[in-house]
Amino acid sequence: MLKKFYQSTLTEAGCDEAGRGCYAGPVFAAAVILPKNFRHKLLNDSKQVTAENRTELRYIIEEKAISYAVASVDNNEIDSINILKASFKAMHLAIDQLPEAPGMLLIDGNRFYKYKNIPHECIIKGDGLYTSIAAASILAKTYRDEYMLRLHQEYPFYGWNNNKGYGTLEHRKALEQYGICKYHRKSFRLLPDQLNLFPSEASTSSL
């Protein structure tokens, strides 16, 4: 059973990201402040929840949360500053957008760049331990999946509707056949021999 809060004095915002290990697309992050009595039987680490239940939870969290925000950092910036810094930046951007400032941040993982003067606690596998982090994981995951479905319409042959940009066999085979596109993270080693961009974006128009 998830714990409702880490401490009982300060208002807590749970923070988590989605898409850190992907070959393509942005990294998304969410920050969520929940009522202290919030509980839902389906809520868990987003990786342990079905896509259907994640969608259901997203709308419940958005309705019941005291405050929430979602932000992203695109693949070009990921290539520029590296994925770790991009993940932290996405979390900072999400916290920036919270209508209500939290008194403490609960971060999923073991590292974080301090946000202003707000204390934080890094919690390994926190999305399976605390309700606010689990809620943030649900929002980050569902918003990112929705975004990758839109990118799939532009480049359907990578199968982003299924793999959401992760390095599945389907995605790797498509990379071998078509090369990389403008949404791929070029700083990642996608294949043994790094591939070039499409020779022309017009090549997608006939697919």
TrEMBL record:
Superkingdom of this protein's organism: Bacteria
Cellular localization per UniProt: Cytoplasm
Entry keywords, A to Z: Cytoplasm, Endonuclease, Hydrolase, Manganese, Metal-binding, Nuclease
UniProt domain RNase H type-2: residue ranges: 10-200
Enzyme Commission code(s) on record: 3.1.26.4
EC top class, as a word: hydrolase
Main location: cytoplasm
InterPro entries linked: RNase_HII (IPR022898), RNase_HII/HIII (IPR001352), RNase_HII/HIII_dom (IPR024567), RNaseH-like_sf (IPR012337), RNaseH_sf (IPR036397)
Pfam families xrefs: RNase_HII
GO MF annotation terms: RNA-DNA hybrid ribonuclease activity
Reaction(s) the record says it catalyses: Endonucleolytic cleavage to 5'-phosphomonoester
Cofactor(s) this protein requires: Mg(2+); Mn(2+)
Residues annotated for a divalent metal cation binding in this entry: D16, E17, D108
Cofactor note: Manganese or magnesium. Binds 1 divalent metal ion per monomer in the absence of substrate. May bind a second metal ion after substrate binding.
Keyword Cytoplasm on entry: yes
Function: Endonuclease that specifically degrades the RNA of RNA-DNA hybrids.
Similarity-based family: Belongs to the RNase HII family.
NCBIfam families hit by this protein: PRK00015.1-3
Annotated protein name in UniProt: Ribonuclease HII
Natural source organism: Terrimonas ginsenosidimutans
